[in-house]
Write a structure and sequence with these properties.
The complex is a heterodimer of chains A (109) and B (128).
Chain A (H helix, E strand, L loop, with lengths): L3 E4 L2 E4 L5 E11 L4 E6 L6 E5 L3 E2 L7 E14 L9 E7 L5 E3 L3 E5 L1
Chain B lengths: L2 E5 L2 E4 L4 E8 L7 E7 L5 E7 L6 E3 L7 E6 L4 E6 L8 E13 L2 E12 L3 E6 L1
Parallel strand pairs in B: 2-11
Antiparallel strand pairs in B: 1-3, 3-8, 4-5, 4-9, 5-6, 7-8, 9-10, 9-11
Classes of the chains: A mainly beta (109), B mainly beta (128).
């Protein structure tokens, strides 16, 4: 089973800052498998990025994803107030099983 | 607009059963695979089950295999999760999610899905 480890656990930043979130896989995975979600307080998760780097419909271009192998990154170019939330990476390994990272909380500094 | 609405959550005693439903609208339900994902209070996301558009194949996480059963009725745009032998560890918000097949540059990849739409969730509380 592929384990995803996200870091840091909490990221304290100010509006306008750049956020860099990491997701590390316990073994090499195809970039096609890597997905990012955003979850605001009291809300359901929302798809942000799929295939490591493709933005979902309606997602602003300040969100970008990158990476390959075991190391993947979600970057938020300039934080807006609505971006303070928890972010999860997920891998869909082609075996009809999915695993999530434990999440990174982006909080207001 | 894609909508997924869960129902059937509530309080149940340990060892009891509950059936969740997810009403879908705004898309061709019979063309999509679906999944259930849960989130324990203050915790992260846990994938639970997958069901293809035709109800085969189906898959479960080890944590619920043998206790939970996923099913669907394409005629009425409904997804279900039958949960038996519930314990306090099953206390969570349960989300249904639409599974979209991954495609890029004109090619689609079988068995690679991501969850592009989610319901608002149904709270299940199991008391011991």
């Amino acid at each position: 089973e592929v384990v995803l480890t996200q870091s840091p656990g909490i990221l304290s930043l100010s509006p306008g800052d750049r956020a860099t979130l990491s997701c590390r896989a316990s073994q090499s995975i195809s970039s096609n498998y890597l997905v990012w979600y955003q979850q605001r307080p009291g809300q359901a998760p929302r798809l942000l990025i799929y295939g490591a780097s493709s933005r979902a419909t309606g997602i602003p271009d300040r969100f970008s994803g990158s990476g390959s192998g075991t190391d993947f990154t979600l970057t938020i170019r300039r934080l807006e107030p609505e971006d303070f939330a928890v972010y999860y990476c997920q891998q869909s390994g082609g075996s009809l099983e999915w695993t999530f990272g434990q999440g990174t909380k982006v909080e207001i500094k | 607009e894609v909508q997924l609405v869960e129902a059937g959550g509530g309080h149940v005693q340990s060892g009891g059963s509950l059936r969740l439903s997810c009403a879908a609208s705004g898309f061709a339900f019979s063309s999509y695979s679906m999944s259930w994902v849960r989130q324990a209070p203050g915790k992260g996301l846990e994938w639970l089950s997958y069901i293809s558009s035709s109800s085969s194949p189906i898959n479960y996480a080890d944590s619920v295999k043998g206790r939970f059963t996923v099913s669907r009725d394409n005629d009425i745009y409904a997804l279900y999760l039958q949960m038996n032998s519930l314990t306090a560890e099953d206390t969570a918000i349960y989300y249904c999610a639409r599974a979209k097949l991954f495609c890029r540059d004109g090619s689609c990849y079988s068995n690679i899905y991501y969850f592009d739409s989610w319901g608002q969730g149904a709270l299940v509380t199991v008391s011991s």
